[in-house]
Design a protein that fits this description.
6-stranded mixed β-sheet, two-stranded antiparallel ribbon, alpha+beta, 6 helices, Peptide Methionine Sulfoxide Reductase, Chain A, 35% helix
């Protein structure tokens, strides 16, 4: 049995790479969601005019890793208090967003954000929205960190997120 979860928190390359480390995660697909343009391209999403965010869709085995675990990891690898940005990536396409697919996901995400808001001095700006349509990104965006580990952006931004997952969630890592 496989469930899906969809998250956006900056560049999808970074989020994808971090989630791929986890045991119970069957696949992670970079894409676009949360906007109003049908079947957008990367260039269109980067314009900020489509309303879409760069997101990842995580297919996972809920018997091995839970949605609550995915929420914890997601909120550990990005800053949910940055409005429409993560690090050097600026624009609504890089916003913090959880796109829920069920009432249970909505309730869990809402409770998680509410608790998290108590911990931060700044407001948590993560959007919680129903997932209407997920559009996979172009093939060259898939597994980008894995295919381009020496890319300067990946070394500076994706690699630290992967390391944080490895250090913080050792018990949840995929073992080869």
């Amino acid at each position: 049995m496989t469930d899906t979860a969809t998250f956006g928190g900056g560049c999808f390359w970074c989020i994808e790479a971090a989630f791929k480390e986890l045991d119970g995660v069957d696949s992670v697909t970079s894409g676009y969601a949360g906007g109003r343009t049908d079947d957008p391209t990367y260039r269109e999403v980067c314009s900020g005019e489509t309303g879409h965010a760069e997101v990842v869709r995580v297919e996972y085995d809920p018997e091995t890793i839970g949605y609550d675990d995915l929420l914890e990891i997601f909120f550990t690898i990005h800053d949910p208090t940055q409005l429409n940005r993560q690090g050097p990536d600026v624009g609504s396409q890089y916003r913090s967003i959880v796109l829920y697919e069920t009432d249970a996901q909505r309730e869990q995400a809402d409770a998680y954000v509410e608790a998290l808001d108590e911990e931060y001095d700044d407001d948590v700006v993560t959007e919680l929205e129903p997932l209407e349509t997920f559009y996979p990104a172009e093939e060259y965006h898939q597994d980008y960190f894995e295919k381009n580990p020496q890319d300067a952006y990946c070394r500076m931004h994706a690699a630290p997120k992967v390391e944080k997952v490895r250090e913080t969630f050792d018990a949840k890592l995929e073992r080869a």
